Automatic annotation (TrEMBL), chain A:
Organism this protein belongs to: Thermoclostridium stercorarium (strain ATCC 35414 / DSM 8532 / NCIMB 11754)
Cofactor(s) for this UniProt protein: FMN
EC top class, as a word: oxidoreductase
Catalytic site: C128
Main localisation: cytoplasm
Residues holding substrate: K44, N68, S69, V70, G71, L72, N125, N190, T191
Gene: pyrD
Function in brief: Catalyzes the conversion of dihydroorotate to orotate with NAD(+) as electron acceptor.
Protein name as it appears in the record: Dihydroorotate dehydrogenase
Subcellular location: Cytoplasm
EC number(s) on file: 1.3.-.-
Superkingdom assignment: Bacteria
Molecular function in Gene Ontology: dihydroorotate dehydrogenase (NAD+) activity
Domain spans labelled Dihydroorotate dehydrogenase catalytic: 3-284
Automatic annotation (TrEMBL), chain B:
Keywords: 2Fe-2S, Electron transport, FAD, Flavoprotein, Iron, Iron-sulfur, Metal-binding, Pyrimidine biosynthesis, Transport
Domain FAD-binding FR-type per the UniProt entry, residue ranges: 1-100
UniProt protein name: Dihydroorotate dehydrogenase B (NAD(+)), electron transfer subunit
Organism in which the protein naturally occurs: Thermoclostridium stercorarium (strain ATCC 35414 / DSM 8532 / NCIMB 11754)
Pathway note: Pyrimidine metabolism; UMP biosynthesis via de novo pathway; orotate from (S)-dihydroorotate (NAD(+) route): step 1/1
GO biological process entries: 'de novo' UMP biosynthetic process
UniProt xrefs under InterPro entries: Cbr1-like_FAD-bd_dom, Cyt_c3_hydrogenase_gsu, Dihydroorotate_DH_ele_sf, Dihydroorotate_DH_Fe-S-bd, Dihydroorotate_DHASE_ETsu, FAD-bd_FR_type, FNR_nucleotide-bd, PyrK_electron_transfer
Function summary: Responsible for channeling the electrons from the oxidation of dihydroorotate from the FMN redox center in the PyrD type B subunit to the ultimate electron acceptor NAD(+).
Residues reported in the UniProt entry to bind FAD: R51, P52, V53, S54, G75, T76
Length: 301, 258
């Protein structure tokens, strides 16, 4: 049984990746399971300078999901290279550096730094809903995505993934802009902008008022977007959004995803990634798939 | 690190306050005062996240530990309905707990409402120290575990906001009066933020060692999601530190209360 996938030159031992922003830099989950088992790890979103993040409360539980407004708290790209890559490199898994900037120059500078670092791919986060400057502004229009992707492409020596926002009118236009501008791959979806109100205090639950919705609640939207995007572009698609088990992961692959990222579900089940890998194997056995990549786009319409 | 704990007993302590005794050798043998467990309430999606609950005490020989909690929403409502023999998915023990006192030291615990729970475990584990406990509740009907605290502490003062039990008024009043005459070696506090701020300020002014147990909405409970943060001083600056992993117990002088 062949679980390997090749995403625009990025070779993964299996299609299950830990999603950015939910896995830190791997240290915490390494106490629960062997990180060598993962296809890849997309690390906590990095910015050029360290970021303190947004004021608490940063989370609100909603039906079948959560809203978060962490706001990219991170130690900065230099500290990541110095303190976190040596730890992550102890494991035989792909390291994807997720980066977010306020300006095109920020993205380019980080891509330069990370191109010289020991990582496997760069994921451009142009879709974080929790920061006021840059980031989502780039991801909200095809022009913005083109501008940042083509500038980064010129300096990026690694596999370049562009992570798309669902908070747009037509996500296929964004994916096409990323492809046209030199992205090797797109990943989707980032969180959906949402809000929760405490009716007793009559105040927003989140310190930042609005936040990003994730978890099972967003899954049908994400599957639909992966389906549409995979039809619209030729580059590989990494699917995510509410995946909690192998069945969900297979659903995304049938919709056209070459690999999947799992995030929020890990907060509830720290073993969700390895259980999903095992479950995909069982699915392959049951349905006669020899290669996991054959599941991608195998939807019968 | 995640275990199936089995419910040994479920006891209603007061209106909406419950004590669960759970059997788990790993958790009961590894827990320390101030730590917590993160519990999955059900498989359903309506209460999606786990619920963090502080550990009330452990019983080594029986391989059990107790948690006490207040019903505040759907998740805790489900926990309150658990029956003997039910299995509960628990991650723990988690977090950094209290610094235990040395033998012969004089300690004080100041707790408010459901914030008293981790303090009982601390008192029971502080062998050889002289222990004073100040507990505050909104009213007499909410006073719980009084007998346990009486046994665990050398001196116990209870106050209620409405005066229906013990002294009338906030718990900080008898505590501050105590500080006028006595100088404890260590003070530990857990409860509503305004109470903890008063306790922390009083100790900081006098240079008394003080630890506070912080609370914030949590995501993962293990330090990965960066959700449950509080502001902690770092030289001339500050940073958001994780309550679940770097805490929940912090030195009072480090915390910048919101």
């Amino acid at each position: 049984m062949d679980l390997t996938v090749n995403i625009a030159g990025l070779k993964l031992k299996n299609p299950v990746i830990a999603a950015s922003g939910t896995f830190g830099f791997g240290r915490e989950f390494s106490e629960f399971f062997d990180l060598n088992l993962l296809g890849g790890i997309s690390v906590k979103g990095l910015t050029l300078a360290p970021r303190k993040g947004n004021p608490p409360p940063r989370i609100a539980e909603t039906p079948a999901g959560i809203l978060n407004s962490v706001g990219l708290q991170n130690p900065g790209v230099h500290a990541f290279v110095r303190d976190e890559i040596p730890f992550l490199r102890k494991f035989d898994t792909c390291i994807i550096a997720n980066v977010a900037g306020n300006t095109v120059e920020d993205y380019c500078r980080m891509a330069e730094i990370l191109s010289d670092a020991d990582i496997d791919a760069i994921e451009l986060n142009v879709s974080c809903p929790n920061v006021k400057e840059g980031c989502l502004i780039f991801g909200s229009t095809a022009e913005g995505i083109s501008k940042v992707t083509s500038a980064v492409r010129k300096v990026c020596k690694k596999t370049l993934i562009v992570k798309l926002s669902p908070n747009v009118t037509d996500i296929t236009e964004m994916a096409k802009a990323a492809e046209y501008s030199g992205a090797d791959c797109v990943s989707l979806i980032n969180t959906i902008l949402g809000m929760a109100i405490d009716i007793n205090s009559r105040r927003p639950v989140l310190g930042n008022v609005v936040g990003g919705l994730s978890g099972p609640a967003v899954k049908p939207i994400a599957v639909r977007m992966v389906y549409q995007v995979s039809k619209a572009v030729k580059i590989p698609v990494i699917g995510m959004g509410g995946i909690s088990n192998a069945d969900d992961a297979v659903e995304f692959m049938l919709a056209g995803a070459s690999a999947v990222m799992i995030g929020t579900a890990g907060f509830v089940n720290p073993y969700v990634w390895i259980e999903t890998i095992e479950g995909i194997k069982q699915y392959m056995e049951k349905h006669g798939f020899q290669k996991v990549s054959d599941i991608t786009g195998a939807l019968i319409e | 690190m995640n275990f199936n704990a089995v419910v040994v007993k479920n006891e209603k302590l007061a209106e909406n306050i419950y004590l669960l005794r759970l059997k788990s050798e790993k958790i009961s043998h590894n827990a320390a005062p101030g730590q917590f467990v993160n519990i999955k309430c059900c498989d359903g999606l309506d209460t999606y996240l786990r619920r963090p609950v502080s550990i009330l005490r452990t019983h080594g020989p029986e391989n059990t530990f107790d948690i006490a909690f207040m019903v505040r929403g759907k998740g805790t409502r489900i926990l309150s309905c658990l029956k003997e023999g039910d299995a509960v998915d628990c991650i723990g023990p988690l977090g950094r707990g209290f610094t235990l006192p040395e033998k012969g030291e004089r300690i004080c615990v100041v707790g408010g409402g459901i914030g008293i729970f981790p303090l009982l475990y601390l008192l029971e584990k502080s062998a050889g120290a002289y222990k004073a406990a100040f507990l505050g509740f909104r009213s007499g009907g909410l006073v719980v575990l009084g007998k346990d605290f009486e046994k665990a502490a050398d001196q116990l003062i209870i106050s209620t906001d409405d005066g229906s039990f013990g002294e009338k008024g906030p718990v900080t009043t008898p505590f501050l009066k105590y500080l006028e005459k006595e100088r404890p070696d260590r003070v530990y506090t857990c409860g509503p933020a305004p109470m903890m701020i008063k306790v922390a300020d009083a100790c900081n002014e006098r240079g008394i060692f003080c630890e506070v147990s912080m609370e914030q909405r949590m995501g993962c409970g293990i330090g990965a999601c960066l959700v449950c943060v509080c502001r902690i001083k770092h030289n001339d600056d500050w940073a958001y530190e994780r309550i679940c992993r770097d805490g929940p117990v912090f030195r009072a002088e480090e915390v910048i209360f919101e």
